[in-house]
Amino acid sequence: QKEVEQDPGPLSVPEGAIVSLNCTYSNSAFQYFMWYRQYSRKGPELLMYTYSSGNKEDGRFTAQVDKSSKYISLFIRDSQPSDSATYLCAMNEGSYGQNFVFGPGTRLSVLP
Amino acid sequence: KAGVTQTPRYLIKTRGQQVTLSCSPISGHRSVSWYQQTPGQGLQFLFEYFSETQRNKGNFPGRFSGRQFSNSRSEMNVSTLELGDSALYLCASSLDRTGPYEQYFGPGTRLTVT
Question: Which of A102, B9, B85, B112 is disulfide-compatible with B43, CB 3.0–4.6 A?
Answer without folding.
Answer: A102
